[in-house]
Design goal:
CATH topology: Rossmann fold
Strand order of the largest sheet: 2-3-1-4-5
CATH superfamily: P-loop containing nucleotide triphosphate hydrolases
Order of helices and strands: EHEHHEHHEHHEH
Structural class: alpha/beta
Number of helices: 8
Length: about 210
Amino acid sequence: MKHIAIAGNIGAGKTTLCELLSRQFNWDVLYEDTSINPYLSDFYYDMLRWSFNLQIYFLNNRFQQIVKIQRGDKTVVQDRTIYEDAHIFAPNLHEMGLMSKRDFDNYFSLFEIMMSTIRPPDLLIYLKASIPTLVNHIQLRGRDYEGNMSLDYLKKLNQRYEQWIHEFNHCPVIIINTDEFDFIGNKEDLGKVISDVEARINGLFDWK
């Protein structure tokens, strides 16, 4: 396997799992680095104004990461997928009236062109989480701009995530319920996650 992608809502634990798997399997990591994102803070203060700019930034950044992975010769674990940008975050903003139909159609057309030039991941790991778990993780990491995020926004994203992962069929999928598996604080739970990933890598199980 060359490309392992971690998917999940805001606060699901994607970055932490990337780091743990990187140490376990000696994989490289491509993070979703929020510290250098020029739009993220503005977006949480004024979603209507900055939604299109933010989503184009994410789409461009994620596409560049995939091109880098597919041109390279190392196994890489990616923090969030390009699918989530296009099938969850952008349409959610459009549905909430925070991205115009004109902007969304333009955005999605660009996404489809990009997808025609790249391959899907070899394995996708989806971190499923309830709203209380997401809120707890978000509060623990204490990012100022996330303090303006509404529960309604998180709930809408979670609903879209559940629909999307149910229909996703581009590659093998592992689903980890982070309400039940504390791979951060429980070594036994982490061991179970690692064993599941190893089984998929070694082809012991069929697709989801």
